[in-house]
């Protein structure tokens, strides 16, 4: 076993970011006598899976896969979907040994893929660089086991906890390196969501501006359908998918947005606002496997209070805005005592230019 080949498979898997949803990211490397004879990755939804892509690449190189070893980041599938089972292809190709990075929690696979490989005479070694391989698919693992999108709460703030000056000016809190990281996450997530207040105050476009990236579905949480019709997000809705989540049943109002290319999603209300858990269930049913929540403070509080957030990303800039009226990342009522606070686990710190990113998982 050579871990270099699995690291290469992880590297290849990343090439599918933003295009395979709601499928997992997977990379595969075929090896014979210490030499790579084929590589593949799941490039986009509906396309060849990584294993079959590697076999195809092997054939195009004029190589034979019979007797070769395969390094693959995720357990090979054993069911029919958009593509036929990869286990069949590997057995038919005569692969001798498969090194698997991570198991697949999909109930249609979940150990059955590995069992079929072994029954077909293929030696299997599991959990090779397991942590790195699992990290590829935090979104997929959450979605396939819960049916709900993985929700990231992201914000940028100063060292004194402000997301804007007292005037409301907020461009830019963080630097270029931090903003580039945000666009990479926008590319990876299936949807990006903000509250109507953010649209009214900041008039964002909510697009992905990284080279080779794709725009996520834009979602505005707008309980009363008051998003300005002349806002940039509404005016570009005919070109970039845009959804308004609302509990307003005024069909005349809805038609004004639909005429401009928006989709209206009528949701149950809770205290006069969109019921966020119900919204997440609806998005999951639409195969939206991930949501990047970018603001504002009231929506952030509601999402945390209602338990729909799984990960928090806080970008911290070495600046001090001051001001008792300057906005903070999370609004709402807040908690009455420190021991009621939402806590994070598995926190990580990363420097991005002059800024820092602290990321962690919400403890349930």
From TrEMBL:
Coiled coil: none
Necessary cofactors: Zn(2+)
Active site, UniProt feature: 51 (proton donor)
MF (Gene Ontology): 5-amino-6-(5-phosphoribosylamino)uracil reductase activity; diaminohydroxyphosphoribosylaminopyrimidine deaminase activity; NADP binding; zinc ion binding
Biological process annotations from GO: riboflavin biosynthetic process
Domain CMP/dCMP-type deaminase: 1-125
Reaction catalysed by this enzyme: 5-amino-6-(5-phospho-D-ribitylamino)uracil + NADP(+) = 5-amino-6-(5-phospho-D-ribosylamino)uracil + NADPH + H(+); 2,5-diamino-6-hydroxy-4-(5-phosphoribosylamino)-pyrimidine + H2O + H(+) = 5-amino-6-(5-phospho-D-ribosylamino)uracil + NH4(+)
Superkingdom, natural source: Bacteria
EC nos: 3.5.4.26, 1.1.1.193
Binding site for NADP(+): 156, 172, 198, 202, 223, 296-302
Keyword Transmembrane: no
Binding site for substrate: 170, 186, 206, 209, 294
Keyword Chaperone: no
InterPro entries (alphabetical): APOBEC/CMP_deaminase_Zn-bd, CMP_dCMP_dom, Cytidine_deaminase-like, DHFR-like_dom_sf, Eubact_RibD, RibD_C, RibDG_C, Riboflavin_Biosynth_HTPR
Amino acids binding Zn(2+): 49, 77, 86
UniProt entry keywords in alphabetical sequence: Hydrolase, Metal-binding, Multifunctional enzyme, NADP, Oxidoreductase, Riboflavin biosynthesis, Zinc
Details of cofactor binding: Binds 1 zinc ion.
Pfam families in the cross-refs: dCMP_cyt_deam_1 (PF00383), RibD_C (PF01872)
Protein family according to the UniProt entry: In the N-terminal section; belongs to the cytidine and deoxycytidylate deaminase family.
PANTHER family: 2,5-DIAMINO-6-RIBOSYLAMINO-4(3H)-PYRIMIDINONE 5'-PHOSPHATE REDUCTASE (PTHR38011:SF7), DIHYDROFOLATE REDUCTASE FAMILY PROTEIN (AFU_ORTHOLOGUE AFUA_8G06820) (PTHR38011)
Task of the protein: Converts 2,5-diamino-6-(ribosylamino)-4(3h)-pyrimidinone 5'-phosphate into 5-amino-6-(ribosylamino)-2,4(1h,3h)-pyrimidinedione 5'-phosphate.
Protein name stated in the entry: Riboflavin biosynthesis protein RibD
Organism field: Moryella indoligenes
């Amino acid at each position: 076993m050579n871990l270099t080949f699995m690291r290469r498979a992880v590297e290849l898997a990343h090439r599918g970011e933003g295009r395979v949803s709601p499928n997992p990211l997977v990379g595969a490397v075929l090896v014979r006598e210490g030499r790579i004879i084929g590589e593949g990755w799941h490039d986009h939804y509906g396309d060849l899976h990584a294993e079959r892509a590697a076999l195809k690449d092997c054939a195009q190189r004029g190589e034979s896969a019979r007797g070769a070893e395969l390094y693959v980041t995720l357990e090979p599938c054993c069911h029919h979907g958009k593509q036929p089972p990869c286990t069949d292809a590997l057995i038919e190709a005569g692969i001798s040994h498969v090194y698997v990075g991570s198991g697949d929690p999909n109930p249609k696979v979940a150990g059955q893929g590995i069992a079929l490989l072994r029954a077909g005479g293929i030696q299997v070694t599991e959990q090779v660089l397991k942590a790195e391989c699992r990290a590829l698919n935090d979104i997929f693992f959450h979605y396939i086991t819960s049916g709900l999108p993985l929700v990231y709460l992201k914000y940028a703030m100063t060292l004194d906890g402000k997301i804007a000056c007292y005037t409301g000016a907020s461009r830019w809190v963080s630097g270029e390196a931090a903003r580039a990281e945000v666009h990479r996450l926008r590319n990876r997530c299936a949807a990006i969501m903000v509250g109507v207040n953010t649209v009214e105050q900041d008039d964002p476009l909510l697009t992905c501006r990284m080279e080779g990236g794709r725009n996520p579905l834009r979602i505005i949480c707008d309980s009363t359908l008051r998003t300005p019709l002349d806002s940039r997000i509404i005016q570009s809705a005919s070109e970039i998918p845009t959804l308004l989540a609302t509990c307003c049943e005024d069909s005349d109002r809805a038609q004004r947005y639909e005429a401009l290319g928006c989709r209206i999603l009528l949701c149950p209300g809770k205290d006069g606002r969109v019921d966020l858990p119900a919204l997440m269930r609806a998005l999951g049913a639409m195969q939206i496997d991930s949501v990047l929540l970018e603001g504002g403070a009231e929506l952030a509080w509601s999402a945390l209070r209602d338990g729909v957030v799984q990960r928090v990303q806080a970008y911290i800039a070495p600046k001090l805005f001051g001001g008792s009226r300057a906005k903070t990342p999370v609004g709402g009522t807040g908690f009455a005592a420190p021991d009621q606070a939402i806590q994070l686990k598995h926190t990580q710190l990363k420097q991005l230019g002059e800024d820092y990113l602290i990321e962690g998982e919400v403890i349930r």
